[in-house]
Amino acid sequence: MRIEHVDPEHVLAWRSEDGNWVWTFVVEERDGRTRLISRNRFRLPRLIARIGMLPMEPGSLVMERKMLLGLKQRGQRLASARTT
Fold this sequence. Notes:
With about 80 residues, the chain is α+β, with helices and mostly antiparallel strands. The chain folds into two domains: about 1-45; about 45-84. Helix content is about 40%, strand content about 35%. It is built from two helices and four strands; from the N terminus they run ββββαα. It has helices at about 45-55, 55-84, and strands at about 1-5, 10-15, 20-30, 35-40. It has a four-stranded antiparallel β-sheet, covered by helices on one side. β3 and β4 form a beta hairpin. The longest helix has 28 residues, at about 55-84. The protein is elongated.
C-alpha cells in the first residue's frame, strides 16, 4: 500500500500497487461534531480472488469496527483531557 492522497485533518487514502484496493479515512465536521469514515474499495478481476474474499469479509468488518471504536475512545479521552 502506498499513500495516494493526504489532506491534513480531512483525508488519508492508500492505494495498492496494482490499484485494485483503495482504503480511505475521511474526517467530517458537522454541527460541532466530528465523524470518522473508513471506506474500502476492492476490484477483484479474477473469480478465485472474489470467492476468496467471502470468508474474509466478516472478519474484516469486526476488525475495522474495533479499530474505529478504539480511535473514538482515544479521541474522546484526549478531548476530555483538554477541557479539564
